[in-house]
Design a protein that fits this description.
Elements lengths: L15 H9 L17 H17 L8 H8 L8 H24 L1 H20 L4 H15 L2 H12 L6 H29 L1 H22 L13 H24 L4 H23 L13 H30 L5 H7 L2 H15 L6 H22 L5 H28 L6 H31 L8 H22 L5
Helix pairs in contact: 1-2, 2-7, 2-8, 2-9, 4-5, 4-6, 4-7, 4-10, 4-17, 5-6, 5-7, 5-9, 7-8, 7-17, 8-9, 8-14, 8-16, 10-11, 10-17, 12-15, 12-16, 12-17, 12-18, 14-16, 15-16, 15-18, 17-18
């Protein structure tokens, strides 16, 4: 999977009014203390977590559009450096559940700080890479250990807020998690061109180091579960299924869906899932309790997360490419035209969180998924003649839809499990969303390329209509699922 298109996306916005208000009236739950035993304001903890999470997330895509320059510098092939994006993406998906469960067992503060520290080390090593393979190895290892920050950041925030208040900070968390990779995507190319690719990581390492020290000092401890063991067989069988799915999807675009290695990878998926279910049913301490999926407010939000990420990120890949090919716009013009999506996302997320106690989760998620479905539909209808007004409308609907839905979906999952399981519950949700992202981006692009059959310019418009039509259909399935959420 590669991300080549220019564009702008979600940016982190800090809740300063709430930070000040919560600082005056702390509402930290019992036991929410830092390493020195001092009570911590929930919003102060959220700010610290968001700062660290943003810089970890931004490292994943920061070299996405700079592969030719890096290949020339290291004497590597551009094609081999596609793993600078695919490798970390797959690593994050494979190790997220491990990190979430370890946080539940041994404390999320510890796992979060170790994730930040490890990411810092590998960012510094990336700056010292001497070849293409060493660069890829450091990026993949850095993403693997940095993945620990995702589930633990969710668990730390959720533990600091009462269930009815969680949607508000989660609105800003979703901005950071979505905005970090796109920040890296947008600034990576210009920074590499101006200062060279090594300078990016030398400047990023001190920021990650600072986030590590602040997190170690200020974040509260979370309880440890000393009599529960990590489910190694469960994690191993799940990893087999995920590796087969993600590698198969990624390589199908490059090698073709009938390539023997691609078919072998896909064959691992049902085998791995079958083994995973058998292991989990027999384990006294399962990695992911299968009974959760019988709980509507767990299984439904997780499934919706797949649907919305499928359409949202699939559309993200197609939109800049469509504007360049069908309308012939320059990279600068495309970047400017895509501003409405991050802008509306930045507004919709906090607003949805603010009104969480006044508007039901079901109503909010239904409205958000409808907005995303309409966005995909508008793109499908205007793909042959994508006027500026139509594109702005579609991008605005997309930003509003995902910004409104994501925080409420995350809060629903957190509220459906016990506090001691927040890490693995959040990791499961993130995992399914990551699969939706990977499938959506690769499948919609493959549909467009295949149906274009070599057509270029305005003649390629119908191929984009078809791809966006598929995205709209999946988003509509998300609308139907949203109606099943219980208050």
């Amino acid at each position: 999977m590669s991300i080549e298109a220019p564009g702008v996306d979600e940016e982190a916005v800090l809740p300063w009014p709430d930070l000040v208000e919560r600082g005056r009236h702390p509402a930290a739950p019992s036991g929410a203390v830092d390493r020195r035993g001092r009570d911590r304001s929930p919003w102060l903890v959220a700010w610290v977590v968001l700062f660290g999470t943003f810089w970890v997330a931004s490292t994943i895509t920061i070299l996405a559009v700079s592969r030719p320059a890096i290949a020339a510098d290291l004497g590597a092939s551009v094609e081999s450096l596609v793993w600078l994006i695919s490798g970390p993406t797959i690593a994050v998906a494979l190790t997220g559940t491990t990190a979430g469960k370890l946080g539940d067992l041994h404390g999320h503060r510890r796992v979060f700080v170790l994730g930040l520290a490890g990411a810092t080390v590998f960012v510094a090593l990336t700056a010292l890479a001497w070849s293409g393979p060493s660069l890829i190895a450091f990026r993949v290892l850095g993403a693997t250990i940095g993945a620990a920050t995702g589930p633990s950041s969710l668990a730390l925030i959720n533990r600091m807020f009462a269930p009815e208040d969680r949607s508000r900070p989660l609105g800003f968390w979703s901005l950071v998690v979505a905005g970090g990779p796109v920040f890296g995507l947008v600034v990576g190319g210009p920074l590499v061109e101006a200062f060279g690719w090594r300078a990016i990581f030398w400047s990023q390492a001190p920021l990650l180091a600072a986030a590590t020290l602040v997190s170690w000092w200020l974040l509260p401890e979370t309880p440890r579960r000393r009599h529960v063991h990590f489910d190694v067989p469960g994690q191993a069988t799940l990893a087999v299924a995920l590796a087969g799915l993600l590698i198969g999807i990624d390589r199908a675009a490059a090698w073709g869906p009938t390539n023997p290695w691609v078919l072998a990878a896909f064959a691992l998926v049902p085998l791995g899932l079958w083994a995973f279910v058998r292991v989990e049913r027999r384990s006294p301490h399962p990695l992911i309790p299968l009974g959760w999926f019988r709980h509507r407010n767990f299984s439904v939000p997780v499934a919706i997360g797949f649907a919305v990420q499928f359409g949202y990120m699939g559309g993200f890949i197609l939109a800049p490419k469509m504007l360049a090919e069908v309308r012939g716009l320059s990279a600068d013009a495309i970047a400017l035209l895509m501003v409405p999506r991050p802008l509306t996302f930045a507004i919709a997320g906090p607003v949805a969180g603010w009104y969480a106690t006044r508007i039901s989760a079901r109503t909010t998620v239904v409205a958000g998924t409808i907005a995303l479905s309409l966005s995909m539909t508008v793109f499908a209808l205007v793909a042959s003649d994508p006027t500026t007004a139509a594109i702005v409308l579609a991008l605005t609907l997309s930003g509003i839809g995902i910004g409104a839905a994501q925080p409420r979906l995350t809060a629903c999952v957190a509220n459906a499990v016990r506090d001691e399981d927040l890490g693995i519950a959040g990791a499961t949700q993130l995992l399914v969303a990551q699969v939706g992202t990977t499938v959506g981006m690769n499948l919609l692009e493959a549909i467009q390329v295949t149906s274009a059959a070599g057509a270029t310019g305005a003649a390629a418009g119908p191929s984009y209509s078809l791809a966006y039509g598929v995205g709209a259909a999946v988003a509509v399935a998300g609308v139907a699922l949203a109606g099943l959420i219980r208050e």
